[in-house]
């Protein structure tokens, strides 16, 4: 582009050019310069997501299909993390502008004041499962070791809610914390009796024939919130236009997944590295939506208060801080 402009400016010095022609060339130069500047003016966003987490498919679709760039956003992936708390540490240290991450670590971080972030949109609801070993028996004679991705996580809440269901009511459960990638290895080695994790790990366990789904999360807590698209408060305040542009790109990506699931599958395969059959099965267990649930988040906040992880003076007010302001929600309200 710069070479073309220089060439046209050189033409302006040609004595054979009329005044009108020179005006035309100068005008063209200005237009080219404006176009060139606009093309380079993409807002730079430092983004992160969780390793192989199919709940974050909308991010991958948005990058692959160019939806973010169409909104003037350049996504720079600065971290692929193994757990949500790691993402919030990066937020707390100022190393991230935005991330796709679990609603649970966002809630804990905001409640404890370790990171100033807000959920701009939902990424998905449901899409987790309790998976148990093929050797699981309802004997109730020993402690069952069940891995969860974090204490106070949505998966922790799901396991606690499921403890009264028939297949778990007579069991003694010992939860331990493992990252989902390590859960498959531990289950295969017989080091744990089961795990609670997000897709595609439950579907992968079934494909490897090392476990079976005892309860899908939709059977435990229907419509429960899970992952969100979060931004730092500092970024949202300094770049409100970019934040809204990312939200529009996210909404467009989510619609694409819902309307063109077959086209979304190869994108998911690329980013997870898992077989197409596993990805297709896993996607069928996830509800992709950008609409935040005030009711679901407040229920989760109250749960964390009940088990002593946080001590919110006003759960509704904390929920509003976590979910930010001005976005539409599943509840039909405006935050």
Briefly, what is this?
By secondary structure, the chain is an alpha/beta fold.
Written account of the structure:
This protein is an alpha/beta fold and 335 residues long. The chain folds into 3 domains: 2-39, no CATH class; 43-125 and 225-323, D-Maltodextrin-Binding Protein, domain 2; 128-220, D-Maltodextrin-Binding Protein, domain 2 (3-Layer(aba) Sandwich), CATH 3.40.190. It is built from 16 helices and 12 strands. The strands form 3 sheets. The chain has a 5-stranded mixed β-sheet. Strands 8-7-9-6-10 form a 5-stranded mixed β-sheet, sandwiched between helices. The protein starts with a helix and ends in a 12-residue tail after the last helix. The model is unreliable at 1-9, 21-26, 28-39 and 330-335 (pLDDT under 50).
């Amino acid at each position: 582009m710069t070479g073309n402009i220089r060439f046209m400016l050189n033409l302006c010095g040609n004595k054979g050019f009329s005044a009108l022609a020179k005006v035309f060339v100068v005008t063209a130069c200005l237009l080219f310069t404006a176009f060139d500047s606009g093309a380079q003016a993409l807002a730079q966003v430092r983004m992160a997501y969780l390793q192989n987490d199919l709940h974050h498919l909308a991010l991958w679709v948005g990058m692959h299909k160019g939806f973010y760039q169409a909104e003037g956003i350049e996504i720079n992936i600065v971290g692929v993390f193994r757990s949500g708390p790691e993402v919030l540490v990066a937020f707390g240290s100022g190393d991230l502008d935005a991330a796709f991450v679990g609603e649970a670590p966002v809630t804990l971080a905001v409640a404890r004041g370790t990171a100033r972030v807000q959920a701009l949109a939902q990424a998905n609801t449901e899409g987790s499962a309790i998976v148990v070993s093929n050797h699981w028996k309802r004997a109730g004679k020993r402690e069952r070791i069940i891995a969860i991705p974090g204490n106070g996580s949505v998966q922790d809440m799901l396991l606690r809610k499921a403890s009264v269901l028939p297949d778990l009511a007579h069991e003694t459960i010992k939860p331990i914390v493992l990252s989902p990638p390590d859960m498959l290895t531990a289950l295969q080695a017989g080091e744990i009796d089961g795990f609670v994790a997000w897709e595609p790990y439950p579907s992968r366990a079934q494909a490897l024939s090392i476990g079976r789904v005892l309860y899908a999360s939709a059977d435990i807590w229907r419509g429960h919130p899970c992952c969100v698209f979060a931004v730092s408060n500092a970024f949202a305040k300094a770049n409100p236009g970019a934040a809204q542009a990312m939200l529009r790109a996210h909404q467009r990506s989510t619609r694409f997944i819902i309307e063109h699931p077959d086209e979304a599958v190869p994108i998911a395969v690329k980013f997870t590295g898992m077989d197409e059959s596993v990805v297709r099965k896993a996607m069928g267990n996830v509800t992709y939506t950008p609409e935040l649930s005030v009711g679901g988040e407040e229920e989760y906040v109250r749960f964390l208060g009940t088990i002593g992880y946080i001590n919110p003076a006003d759960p509704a007010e904390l929920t509003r801080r976590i979910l930010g302001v001005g976005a539409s929600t599943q509840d039909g309200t405006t935050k």
